[in-house]
Amino acid sequence: MDRETRVFAENHFRGLRGRLPSRVCPPLDRVDFIEKPDSFTYADFFKGYLLPNVPCVFSSAFTESWGCRKHWVTPSGKPDFDYLLQNYGDVVVPVANCGVQEYNSNPKEHMPLRDYISYWKEFIQGDYSSPRGCLYLKDWHLCRDFSAEGVFTLPVYFSSDWLNEYWDFLDVDDYRFIYMGPTGTWTRRSPAGLLRWPAL
Fold this sequence. Notes:
The protein has helices spanning 3-16, 42-50, 67-71, 81-88, 113-125, 142-145, 162-170; strands at residues 32-34, 56-58, 92-97, 108-112, 135-140, 178-180, 187-190, 193-195. By secondary structure, it is of the alpha+beta class. The chain has two domains: 1-63, no CATH class; 65-200, Jelly Rolls. The strands form three sheets. It has a four-stranded antiparallel sheet, covered by helices on one side. Strands 1-2 form a two-stranded parallel sheet. Strands 7-8 form a two-stranded antiparallel sheet. The radius of gyration is 18 Å and the shape is globular. Belongs to the JMJD6 family. One of its GO terms (cellular component) is cytoplasm. GO terms for molecular function: 2-oxoglutarate-dependent dioxygenase activity; sequence-specific DNA binding. This is Jumonji domain containing 4.
């Protein structure tokens, strides 16, 4: 996670102050930014954040070895469309329209990834505008439909993944999603508000 996202997270949690019981989310003046993986143990995470239910933000150093970090983006940090097209171009992915709201979500359609990437490039060339709206590749179950080997490694801090262990055992579903899209895409966090993440 970059520093821009850290600032966003801090502002988000400051905005929650007073709206959640202190046992759920203690009052915070800031959100800790954990910079170096080699100086932060599972015990540190458990005692300092998990047990007291305190948020923190991990730096991008925690994901440097992930295949998606090495292959899905260029050295400048932009999406590597060529790699994605070569490896997943024909895969059908779910795409939400951020400009339309239906109840508490956005309507979705399914399209081949190559069509979505074509849209994404046109959206950027059109000065981040399109008659089709602002489309967001959202809730793609890549790990369920393909081998996740080489895409990411689950950090030790999140190794107690009971929800996915349950669904993996039943071989029905999972809660491992891929999200990607151009600037302007967003994810609804609750009926009370929106959660916006920096996008490319």
